[in-house]
Amino acid sequence: MAKPVYFLLGAIPVVVALLIAVPLITKNEIPMSAANSNDKIEIEYTKHQLKKISNGITERIGAQKTEILLIKNDGDIKYTITEKGYPQPDIKSKIDQKKLDKIKALIKETGFISIDSNSFLVFENITDYQKSSVKITLNGRVNQIHWPELNATSDFIPPIISMVESELDKIMSEISE
Question: Which CATH fold would you assign to the domain 33-176?
Answer without folding.
Answer: Mago nashi protein (3.30.1560)
